[in-house]
Amino acid sequence: MSIEIIGTGGYVPEKIITNDDLSQMVETSDEWITQRVGVKERHVSVDETTADLAVKAARQALEAAGIQPEQLGLIITATVTGDTLCPSTAALVQAALGASCPAFDISSACSGFLFALDTAAAFIARGGIDYALVIGAERLSRVLNWQDRSTCVIFGDGAGAAVVRPGNSYLCSKLFTSGNDSVLSIWAGKGNSPFYTREEPPYQVVMNGQETFKFAVRRIVDDLKQICEQAGITPDQLDYIVPHQANSRIIDLAARKLGVPMEKFVLNIDRFGNTSSASVPISFNELVRSGRLRKGDLIALCAFGGGLSSAACIIRW
Ligand code: UT7
Q1: Can you tell me the distance from the alpha carbon of 81 to that of 194, in angstroms, rounded to the nearest whole number?
Q2: Tell me: the pLDDT tens digits for 18-62?
Q3: Any residues with CB less than 8 A from the CB of 95 and at least 6 apart, and which?
Q4: Nearest CA to ligand 1 atom 24
Q5: If you take atom 30 of ligand 1, which residue's CA is the nearest one?
Q6: Which residues, including other chains, have CB under 8 Å from residue 248's CB and lie 6 or more apart?
Q7: Mean pLDDT of the chain
Q8: Ligand 1 atom nearest to 149, measured from its CA
Q9: What is the pLDDT of residues 236-279, one digit of tens each?
Q10: DSSP reduced 3-state for 237
Q11: Single pTM value for the model
Q12: Which of 34, 150, 152, 208 most suits a substitution to test ligand 1, by most atoms within 8 Å of the C-beta?
């Protein structure tokens, strides 16, 4: 038993920060950010929590699916920027929606939504769940060093969600982890213990951009080749690829290495920046709502990021 996606949603906070806005804050320019990353603007939260963003995306997905919160058998939220370590963001979403099912979070950074989707598929395969809600939600603006031009220009806030049920459209998937905290990390800070003596990095995104870039291109190419092989197709037979929106140059390079035209890749990094675990579900939601999908289309979703981690899957629409 596999799954099918029956409703999607996406939400970004209202406030937009443009590249010109950022160039008032750090030494950067619209030209540099556009050319090196592909971002023109990103949305940041002013008064909405990560759970608020998640709930808004979730409500949209539930509405699209025609499902009431009480019909849900499971809620999984992927996030690395939850408002509380306890309760989980998923538990806060459950309360806000008025659902009563088990709810928990998954932490796998930008690959988190696909780890969560695969977990939901496994739960559904076990039986006993009619509908599961899978969310990727991030408020990265709270963990950025806004003086560090190599990271603060990249990221944005947002949430995406999908409602899934038993079905046959999740053809195959791949999850990958290569444990490493020296390339991309968000340390949680030293905390309050009067007994703990180790110094730890401050609570903020620390990234070796070039190493992450190389990892990203390698993972997209390898993961997509592997899942296509599993599905018995070649990458050029995919109708759409929904990649994690980290850097348009990463996607361009991966597309060339795979021999897949850029037109098949769903891109919105210019409008939202990198929203970590929210990036794939926000992009997938845009693809679904664009009306471009035809029954039977083959869509690959792929992501990579902190962990280091990566994930990919193929869905038949
Ligand atoms: O979602 C998690 C996954 N994350 C990613 O996939 C990120 C992957 N990495 C990247 O996207 C890129 O490596 C960055 C966008 C982070 C950086 O781009 P880059 O082309 O790799 O730049 P670089 O780090 O090699 O730096 C080149 C130059 C440096 O100046 P010097 O030393 O050559 O004088 C940087 O200081 O660009 C400078 N620089 C900037 N200049 C203007 C770095 N950030 C900026 C900036 N504005 N915002």
Answers
A1: 25
A2: 999 999 999 999 999 999 999 999 999 999 999 999 999 999 999
A3: none
A4: 209
A5: 150
A6: 37, 38, 267, 269, 270
A7: 97
A8: 48
A9: 999 999 999 999 999 999 999 999 999 999 999 999 999 999 99
A10: helix
A11: 0.97
A12: 150
**pLDDT tens profile 100-140:** 999 999 999 999 999 999 999 999 999 999 999 999 999 99
Packed helices 279-289 and 50-65: angle between N→C axes, nearest 10 degrees: 30
- Helices 279-289 and 112-126: crossing angle, nearest 10°? 80
Find, among 218, 269, 214, the residue nearest to 242 by Cα.
269
Ligand 1 centroid to Cα of residue 143, in Å, is 18
From atom 43 of ligand 1, which residue's Cα is the shortest distance away? 150
Distance in angstroms (rounded) separating the CA atoms of residues 165 and 132: 6
Domains of the chain: 2-167 (3.40.47.10), 172-316 (3.40.47.10)
CB count in 10 Å sphere of residue 142:
15
Strand partners, 174: 312
Specify the 3-state DSSP secondary structure of 67: coil
Backbone φ, ψ for residue 134 (5° rounding) = -115, 130
pLDDT tens profile 205-214: 999 999 999 9
Return the DSSP state at 135. Answer: E
Q: Give how far the C-alpha of residue 44 lies from the chain's centroid of Cα atoms, to the nearest Å.
A: 16
Instruction: Identify whether the C-beta of residue 149 lies closer than 8 Å to the C-beta of residue 209.
Output: no
Active-site pick, 19, 152, 244, 247: 244
Greatest CA separation found in the chain?
Answer: 60
Active site includes 285? no
Is residue 101 among the annotated active site residues? Answer: no
Residue 1: what pLDDT?
57
Distance CA(47)–CA(255), nearest Å, equals 38
What is the predicted pLDDT for the residue at 105? 98
Among 108, 213, 275, the mutation site with the greatest number of ligand 1 atoms within 8 A of its Cβ is 213
Q: Do 157 and 138 touch, CB atoms closer than 8 A? A: yes
